[in-house]
Amino acid sequence: MLTILGIETSCDETAAAVLEINQDGKCVILSNVVHSQIDEHTPFGGVVPEIAARAHIQLLDGIVDQAMKTANVKYSNLSAVAATAGPGLIGGVIVGLMTAKSIAMAIDKPLIAVNHLEGHALTARMTDQVEFPFLLLLVSGGHTQYLLVKALGEYERLGTTIDDAIGEAFDKTAKLLGLPYPGGPAVEKAAKLGDPTVYKLPRPLLDRPGLDMSFAGLKTAVRTAALKEEPVSEQAVNNLCASFQEAVADVLGKRSARAFELFKDRYPDTPVKMVIAGGVAANEAIRIRLNEVAAEHSAELIAPPHKLCTDNAAMIAWAGAERLRKLVAEDPSILEQNGKGDDMNEAPRPRWPLDKISESVVGFGRKGAKV
Ligand code: KG4
Ligand code: ZN
Predict the structure, then answer these.
(1) Which ligand has the nearest atom to the CA of 283?
(2) What domains are defined for the chain?
(3) Quick check: helix, strand or coil at residue 175?
(4) For residue range 136-162, what is the model confidence (pLDDT) as tens digits?
(5) Is there an atom of ligand 1 within 6 Å of 311 CB?
(6) Ligand 1: which of 47, 170, 187, 364 to mutate, judged by most atoms within 8 Å of the beta carbon?
(7) What's the 22 CA to ligand 1 centre distance in angstroms?
(8) What pTM, to 2 d.p., does this model score?
(9) Residue 20 DSSP class
(10) Pocket test for ligand 1, best of 137, 181, 218, 280 (most atoms within 8 A of CB)
(11) In this predicted model, what pLDDT tens digit does every residue of 39-54 receive, in sequence order?
């Protein structure tokens, strides 16, 4: 049995969690504490990296303490400490990784440096025991990508946004229409009262092959349409939100259809599965569209519980546990030998693509990087 402390600080959530993983690989989440810094960033309409880093410093010790107390686990009983080592806002990543290193050093247990994206990628294995290989659609404030999750440590990026992340596009659209931050829920609420057919907005890049996406032009089209309406009535805001959301759902629907076909080509004998993760996956209209497309392509759509597919530390602890299990299988002594074979020397990284082969895309960055 493994007991793992996970720490996540790569954006605007300060989070710690403790997991217990049994011999058969089943996981019990003993605690999962997430402090969202929304209140700190709301006045600025987006995440401010400097404020985030300071808040992580102030909050993290207390959050880790709370996670350990809730789990009722002693530090000396931990098997390992896992922390996000990137990609993300570097100030926050430094705070989390250094805290994790200090704890690991103090209790003489291995440190596992986790790629934040790997945390998202493997969550559905914790919640739904999803077998490899599967597709992952990650749609958050900082990331928008299709990944092929082939095996532990084997990821292929099939497509990504070439500019704004989808959540970022929701947030910026909300801001320009005078709606509150975070924009996603506000746009979704307004869209429910609007007519999606009123404005003809673009579906960028859909005419191109592959799975790349672009959302900056869509947001600009909303701005142009809004400027024509000045002063923008409440109904016009609702219609713009509905039209924007419809365009995003269209893009994701068409791209997902292509992802399903690509999966079938690669793995003709494997059932097609796609996991959706990230804050935008909470959007009902997008979920409905993805479910329709999945049904048309005989694919299964798996959506882990919302609080486990937005940023949290349970997913980091789980990814750490999967990695640790592999390391222990190779060398059982790693659990007794801190600093030998573990990630104590890993540096915090602002960028860290899961797919080491695909080139990184210009403009693809974490939420807040442009604030
Ligand atoms: O995964 P997440 O909680 O955090 C990070 O990106 O780190 O995602 C937050 C993003 C925000 O941009 C927010 O506007 C968006 O997810 N979001 C939504 C909805 N709820 C949150 N976007 C569309 N519809 C929603 N219901
Ligand atoms: Zn994330």
Answers:
(1) 1
(2) 2-123+308-336 (3.30.420.40), 132-303 (3.30.420.40)
(3) helix
(4) 999 998 889 999 999 999 999 999 999
(5) yes
(6) 170
(7) 32
(8) 0.90
(9) E
(10) 280
(11) 888 888 788 999 999 9
